[in-house]
């Protein structure tokens, strides 16, 4: 279970978010630009410290302002996948993948290298450098690198946003497969309902720094509360 309760003021923006999400599978953070999605993800990762609140993942408390707990990012065991893969350009795919793995103590490793490369279909790319990969392949390697740190949780901040429709369709089944395979929660930021429908079991809708709705993709995307102001353009919420 992911338990999150955050209060934070940044400039004129007030973030006041609380939700619970399943301890496995994909939970989507959904909302328009500026809703606070990346802020929430950065606070889970420990990159931004909330003014107050509590963030716990499957019993491990990452942050609790009342108890004075604030684990540094490297102690949180969080795998983070960004919009653009951010692979190390001078390292081979193999070295990119083993980078985080080698920094994880052997007794905390629960993810197997061969299993991950097979799950993500990247076994044939190991000797290549990132410059020789397609956008979809880069993102699959970035996901593999994050997963090979054996994280307690995976954060994915719009990991498909830089890909065209065909590449997105190529990567989605891999994310789906790995989320079903590993027993950790995946917090997945997106403003694409189709992506969320394909991947998520649970959706938390954010707007203006607060939670406006929560539930299954089916429930949420047929919910009239979400039909505005996103009823037109690329963010359109359509019935399943
Ligand atoms: N360091 C900061 N100081 C002041 N305001 C900030 C800071 N960081 C973020 N904000 C503001 O917080 C709000 C939420 O930003 P955030 O990036 O979390 O939104 P988002 O939902 O992830 O948006 P997007 O989908 O565009 O990435 C925005 O209004 C942003 O300008």
TrEMBL record:
Span list, region Disordered: 215-240
GO cellular component: membrane
Pfam families, alphabetized: ABC_tran
InterPro entries noted in UniProt: AAA+_ATPase, ABC_transporter-like_ATP-bd, ABC_transporter-like_CS, ModC_ABC_ATP-bd, Molybdenum_import_ModC, P-loop_NTPase
Single GO term (MF): ATP hydrolysis activity
Keyword ATP-binding: yes
Biased composition (Basic and acidic residues): 216-226
Gene3D superfamilies assigned: P-loop containing nucleotide triphosphate hydrolases (3.40.50.300)
Record's keyword terms, sorted: ATP-binding, Nucleotide-binding
Domain ABC transporter: 1-233
Domain of life the protein comes from: Bacteria
NCBIfam families: modC_ABC
Descriptive protein name: Abc transporter
Species in which this protein is naturally found: Desulfoluna butyratoxydans
């Amino acid at each position: 279970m992911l338990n999150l309760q955050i209060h934070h003021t940044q400039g004129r923006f007030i973030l006041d978010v609380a939700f619970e999400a399943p301890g496995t599978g994909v939970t989507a953070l959904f909302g328009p630009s500026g809703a606070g999605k990346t802020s929430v993800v950065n606070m889970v990762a420990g990159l931004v410290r909330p003014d107050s609140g509590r963030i716990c993942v499957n019993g491990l408390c990452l942050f609790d302002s009342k108890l004075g707990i604030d684990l540094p990012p490297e102690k949180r065991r969080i795998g983070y996948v960004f919009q653009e893969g951010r692979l190390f350009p001078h390292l081979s795919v193999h070295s990119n993948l083993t980078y985080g793995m080698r920094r994880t103590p052997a007794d905390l490793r629960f993810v197997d290298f061969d299993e991950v490369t097979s799950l993500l279909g990247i076994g044939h790319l190991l000797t290549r450098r990132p410059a020789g990969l397609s956008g979809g392949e880069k993102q699959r390697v970035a996901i593999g690198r994050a997963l090979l740190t054996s994280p307690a949780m995976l954060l994915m901040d719009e990991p498909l946003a830089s890909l065209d429709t065909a590449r997105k369709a190529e990567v989605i089944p891999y994310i789906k497969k790995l989320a079903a395979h590993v027993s950790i929660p995946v917090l997945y930021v997106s403003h694409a309902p189709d992506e969320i429908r394909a991947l998520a079991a649970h959706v938390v809708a954010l707007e203006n720094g607060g939670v406006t709705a929560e539930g299954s993709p089916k429930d949420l995307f047929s919910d009239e509360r979400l039909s505005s102001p996103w009823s037109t353009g690329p963010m359109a919420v359509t019935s399943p």
